[in-house]
Amino acid sequence: MNVERGIEPHFVPLIDDAPPGAQASRADPARAAEFEALLREHDRSVRFVATRIVGGDVDDVLQAAYLKAFRRWSTFRGEAAFGTWLHTIVYRTAIDHVRTTRRRALLHVRSAARDTALSTDEAVGDRLAVEAALARLSVAQRAAVLLVDAQGMSYDEAAVVLGVASGTIASRVHRAHLAMRETLERGST
Q: Which of 14, 97, 161, 184 could form a disulfide with 87 if both were Cys (CB 3.0 to 4.6 A apart)?
């Protein structure tokens, strides 16, 4: 599945294959269709976060997270934006996946212009250096940097997703930036 190249991910029909406990959504096709439309709207963003946390097992993690979200859809109260709520579920599912498999996920950062080829060897070298610097961060720091810097979330929004205080996000992002700067400067000298 490659969303980055414009290929739409495959979504299992939610109405016909509703999980146990989701009878309300099965009985209400409009609500299930609304949920599916929201998933499609936020898939690229949560896929980006999940990919950077778990690496190649992203489809399994997203399937589990989407199933959790669907099962909890009837309890979604709208206190936070749907995207924030979904990011929280995906983030926690991804972290659980990393913990249960006892693998440290490598963070693969791609440039914002994924569809365009990098034009110079220097740009490729810079990108690889940033990837290496990000890979050296803890999972908590990488997640904070991803949500704030790459996804454009505020510290408050990232705090909701990660289940920590806003000040903790600020601290993680600051420390991550310092560590990355040190790694990048050390690599360029």
A: 161
End-to-end CA distance of the chain: 39
pLDDT in tens, 20-29: 444 444 457 7
Domain count, the chain: 2
Q: What is the pTM of this model?
A: 0.52
Full residue range of the structural domain in which residue 156 is found: 120-189
At 30-55, the pLDDT tens digits run 878 888 898 899 999 899 888 888 87
Instruction: Quote the CA–CA distance of 46 and 104 in Å, as a whole number.
Output: 19
Q: Are 128 and 97 part of one and the same domain?
A: no
CA angle, residues 54, 59, 62, in degrees to nearest 5: 80
Q: For residues 134 and 83, state if they share a domain.
A: no
| Residue pair 179/136 in contact by the 8 Å Cβ criterion | yes
DSSP result, 106-143 = PP----S-TTS---SHHHHHHHHHHHHHHHTS-HHHHH
